[in-house]
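cache lookup: miss for this entity combination. No prior model stored, computing from scratch. Input as submitted by user K.M.:
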Amino acid sequence: MGINKRLTRLTLATIGAFALSSTIALADADDNELVIEGAKMTTMVEGAKDGPLDEVYSGWRFRSEETQALETDDFDNPAFSAVDRGKELWTTVTGSKGKSCSSCHDKAEDTMKGVRASMPKWDKDLGKPITLEQQINECRTDRLGAEKIKFDHADMLAMTSYIGLQSRGMPVNIDTSGPMTEWAEKGKKIYYTRVGQLDMSCANCHEDNYGKRIRADHLSQGQINGFPTYRLKWNGLGSVHRRFKGCMKNIRAKPFKVGSDEFVALELYVASRGQGLSVETPAVRN
Amino acid sequence: MKKSFVIAFAAAGAVLLGATYSQAGSHSNTVSPEMAMIKDGTFEKSLTGGAGDAEKGKKTFANRKLGNCLACHANKDLASQPFHGEVGPSLDGVAGRYEEKQLRAIMINSKSVLGEATIMPSFYRLENGIRTMKKFKGKTILNAEQVEDVIAYLKTLK
C-alpha cells in the first residue's frame, strides 16, 4: 500500500494544510478528517461547559499525515494481526470449564458493541470500577476457569483490540454518576497532581500545552479513545496503563502499577474527558 | 556521558551532605539547595562562588539527561540540533531580557519567579513532585556547577 494511495484518501484541502503545516498547523490540532474504511469518525467535539477543555480532540489530529493514514485502512493498520488473533480466541475453548467467550457472549459483533465506549464501568460485586482488561480477566477466572493474564499480554491485547473494534465509531460514553463519581474525582486528583523530579502533572502537558512541540513530539490532549493503541515507538499494541506508566517515567516518577486502583481511577477520569469522541480502537500513533 | 552523569549526582550528593570536597569541583562555599532561597525573583550570588563555564553550559543545556532545555525552548545558537520545543519561550536574546540574578532564580526554582502554575522544572530544588523515582530522590536535576555553567551560556545568547 503506497503513500500515493494513502494520500488520495485525504481531501485536497487536507493536502493544502499539510503543505503549510510546518509553519502554521503545528501550533494546534490539524483539520484533517478521519475516515476509517468509509466510516467518518468524530475527532473533535465541543467540551462540556463546566469541563476543562473548550475543544476535545482525538490524538489522531496531532499525528503526522503518514501515521494518520495508517489508521484509515484496516489493511494498513498494523494492529489488525492482533485483532484477527482476538477473533480466533473469541471462539477458542480455554480453561477448565470447556468454554470460550462465545459460549456465553455469542457473536462479538453483536454482544460487544458499545462495551469499549463505556469502560471503565462499575462492578457491583467488587464495589469499584473495572477496566476492559479486568472484565476479561473476571470472565476468564469465574466463567472459563482460566488464569488471569496481564494487561499487555499478547492474548489480552488481541482480546481488547478485537472487543474494542466492535465499538469503533461509537461515541465515548463514560458513566461518572453514582458510585463512580468518587472514583472520577480520585482520578482527577491524580491528573492534576505534580509528580516526579521534573515536577509535572498530566495537565501541564496535555491540558496547558497540547498542540505544541516538546522536542520531537507533538503534544496531544492525551485522549484514550483509541486504546489499546498500536504505537510505532512500541512496535506493537499497548494498554492505556502502559502508556500512563511511560509518561510517569518520563517525569522521573515511580509509576503506579498496571491495574492499580490509581490507574483505574485515572483511566476513568481521562476517558471521561473524551466523552463524545469516536472510539478508534485499535488506533495508530507514533 | 554516563560517567559524567554519575559524577554529577555524586557531586549533588556531596553538596547535600555539606561536604567541603568533591570530585566535580564544587567549592567549599557552594550554596546548598536548601539555602538557595529566592528573593523578589532574584538570586544574586553564584551557587559555586565562581563564574560558570559557558562552553560546558552549552553542553549541559543540550544534553537530554541534564538540562534538556531544547525539549521546551527553541535556541538558534543550537540550530544544528533538530527538534526544538515550543512549550517555553524561545531563548534567542534571553540575555537581553533577564539579568543574571533573574536567570539564576528561574533556574533554581522556576515556580518562585514564574508562578506555581509553570510547567518548567526547578533545576536546583529538592521539593518536587510526589513519587519521585528512587534514583532521583533527594537530588537536584542539576548540581550547582552545572546551573552556573548554563547561566554563563545563557548570558551569551544576546
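stored under new cache key. Residues 80-165 of chain A form a domain with the Cytochrome Bc1 Complex; Chain D, domain 2 fold (CATH 1.10.760.10).
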